[in-house]
Design goal:
With 233 residues, the protein is of the alpha/beta class. 39% of the residues lie in helices and 26% in strands. Helix 6 links the parallel strand 4 and strand 5. It binds S-adenosyl-L-homocysteine.
Length: 233
């Protein structure tokens, strides 16, 4: 049994041809990309590193990391976004990124302890059993390596900002992109990480100002947030 929700994959596949259009449904991913890339690079220093991006979609983060790292593997279970990611890398002349359609859990049994850095962004909230993905990430990373997650917090403010605000008022994301019940509290994610043998190294919140249309990282994890972990050596 694969840990996947077919309806979730269909949502992303249907939009895949617009993935690299910076004014499309994926605009928020394009806009937050430099912020998360810098935070990852600051902590894990990508240069010379072997990286895997879980739930890479059309490759916005994977391709950006490939420009700094030794090599990047991007995996996803939606075929169309992977096709878009491959084409874009080819057109951009980025040759050290490789995309595969495989579940995180399957790759973890194939290649345990193989990556210096594991990233899994905006994906856990679309998966039936996110703790299983966290365990797979902990298996994929080498001892001492870094694992990064980002997702949405679960509380009244997150409901208002991430669903009502982003999907219904500001039209930043298509309606139905996110399901509140699948949001994850930082304490829950931290517990899954610890249970998987990862130590928590840092957290950041992601803020958005609808008037200036700007994003920035802060200490406020009440809506969008990222966490950084390391596998115990
Ligand atoms: N991580 C990328 C894309 C986020 S969109 C970024 O932040 O830029 C969420 C992605 O998760 C989509 O590409 C979707 O196909 C993928 N996804 C959803 N469920 C998945 C699963 N069970 N296994 C792998 N990928 C999944």
């Amino acid at each position: 049994m694969t840990n996947v929700d077919a309806q979730e994959l269909a949502k992303f596949s249907d939009l895949a041809h617009r993935w690299w259009d910076p004014n499309s449904e994926f605009r928020p991913l394009h806009e937050i990309n430099p912020l998360r890339l810098e935070w990852i690079d600051e902590l894990a220093s990508l240069r010379g590193k072997t990286v895997i991006d879980i739930g890479c979609g059309g490759g916005i983060l994977a391709e950006a990391m490939a420009r700094r790292a030794l090599s990047v593997t991007g995996i996803d279970l939606a075929a169309k976004p992977l096709g878009v990611a491959r084409l874009h890398a080819m057109e951009a002349g980025v040759t050290n990124v490789d995309y595969r359609e495989i579940a995180a859990e399957a790759l973890a049994s194939e290649k345990p302890a193989s990556f210096d850095v594991v990233t899994c962004m905006e994906m856990l909230e679309h998966v039936p059993d996110p703790s299983s993905v966290v365990r797979a990430c902990a298996t994929l990373v080498k001892p001492g390596g870094w694992v990064f997650f980002s997702t949405l917090n679960r509380n009244a403010k997150a409901f208002v900002f991430a669903i009502v605000g982003a999907e219904y008022l500001l039209n930043l994301l298509p309606k139905g992109t996110h399901e509140y019940a699948r949001f994850i509290r930082p304490s829950e994610l931290a517990r899954w990480c610890r249970d998987a043998g990862l130590s928590l190294e840092g957290t950041r919140g992601m803020q958005y100002n609808p008037l200036t249309k700007r994003y920035w990282l802060s200490a406020d994890t009440s809506v969008n947030y990222l966490i950084a972990c390391r596998r115990l050596p």
